[in-house]
Write the structure tokens for this entry.
Amino acid sequence: MKKILISGVCVTLAALALSFLPVRGEQAVYGGVIRLHVIAASDDAEDQAVKLKVRDAVLSALGEKLDGVSDRGEAKTIVSDSLDLVETAARDALSKEGRDDTVAVSFTREKYPEREYDSFALPAGEYDSLRVTIGGGAGKNWWCILFPSFCTSLAEDAEEDFIEAGFTPDQYGAVKKDSGVRYRVRFKILELFAGWFGFEY
């Protein structure tokens, strides 16, 4: 009975301790990428079409400002300082479509699901995000990578664009599709023991 109890406790502790931790630079991806998130007023076909008009207007407004920018800190400053510009561009796009929807623009941290592109995949996680919400924001959203710039088109050599944006080859390897396993299973308890007794885990 005692052995069963001990085994049960061990299994429970292991289950609680088990976690999937990013390796090979995924954490740097979260801090190095800026996303664009545009949310439609509703799932109505017209609202969804308007969402794309707003998207195009926002990208056009920011395009020249971010063109040639390779420093992530500079890109973040440009985006955060351009919220009024983005809101004006979005409102103008709506006005051209005969719409008077409200627009809410913010630069914040948002959680994103994993997203696959042609040659790479961004892990699920929390990213800096330029968020543009149309009306009540009850419709399907649209998102892309604002920095490095992949919103208008996906470059054939994605690695070059990531490296120019400050990523190391290892960090780009973390998101490259054919790089193998991007996550490994680790035990928090073993990590604690490793820290206490000075061995690597």
Observations:
- The mean pLDDT is 75.
- Residues 26-154+164-179 form one domain.
- The longest helix spans residues 45-66.
- The helical segments are 2-17, 26-32, 45-66, 72-80, 83-96, 158-164, 169-173, 188-197.
